[in-house]
Amino acid sequence: MNRVNEKFTLGKLKHKFLAQLLSNIEINDNRVIMGSKIGEDAAVIDIPGPNYLVAKTDPITFATNKIGYYAVIVNVNDLVCTGAKPKWFQSTILLPEKLTTSRMINKIFKNIHDTCKSMDITVVGGHTEITPGLERPIVIGSLIGEVPKNKLVLTSGAKPEDALILTKGIFIEGTSIIGREKEKELLNHELGHEFIKRCQDYLFNPGICVFEEALLANNHFKIKSMHDPTEGGLYTGVAEMTIASNTGVEIEEGRIKILPESEILSKIFSLNPYNTISSGSLLIAVNQEDSFGLIDLLRRNKISAEQIGKFTPKDKGLLVKKEDGKKEPLRYSETDEITKIF
Q1: Which of 19, 84, 154, 165 could bridge 145 with an S-S bond, Cβ 3.0-4.6 Å?
Q2: Are residues 186 and 144 both part of a single domain?
Q3: Positive or negative torsion for Cα 206, 207, 208, 211
Q4: How far separated are the first and last CA of the chain, in Å rounded?
Q5: pTM above 0.70, yes or no
Q6: Which residues pair with 165 in a beta bridge?
Q7: Distance from C-alpha of 15 to C-alpha of 20, rounded to nearest angstrom
């Protein structure tokens, strides 16, 4: 039982506390195929015809540079993890009283519009205001899409012995955020403008969007589960998959790709890269016999991919196999490592 007036840290609510909150939510509409559940990042609603309606909402609270782009992409990522194609976007834009200019507002609107247009998403509405007490802008996105009923993917679909595949690598979004929000500090470490530019470019290369790889995978294989590891990084994302699917997992740490700039930043700021915000990474569960085919498909489409482990029965727990062969408990936190530097 939670203590009265328990204090909380930055980031996601603890899973146990959140599970208690969600257990009190009653869904009295039998058209809701998937509602609020840990690990399931989008709601699924039955509508007449061959498709389900999929709905998602998510905020951007750390980044300020290109915040409109971030707001669209983080919602796209969670939605395409269900196999859905994103269609309609709206946003609530909260702006700081003392820092807001017309230029800032125009940039956010343009970011949102241009990003949606590039993925054939229609902006259908929203709300914008100057909000007291804010130190930076906050954008909360809401996205609706559609998925054929026979192609719906739920995080809860992973089963023991399924392969777990990771695309691109980890700490991608975190690297971009640090490059864009901590440029002066990086210059003080004498890393140079070229290094900082590479970090900033992680937003697009390898990129924080998983639109292409999620839909590519689901179009060609029977995908059991997909998940986009955001706050809390890779290990929190893996843990959320196991919570949703009621399984255990064994990860091979040596197979996890950490890109060069990300590794340098993790050392400079004393961040655990496995627990740092990782939009741009995609976790995919498939039957073991489909693993090599899916990895080959992704690589042929210039998307880095590697099997980093497998799902196990729940009683096996969450384990990480270190490079020396020893197995340790997978440690994760709902509080992202990047909060240490904000």
Answers
A1: 84
A2: no
A3: negative
A4: 31
A5: yes
A6: 284, 307
A7: 9
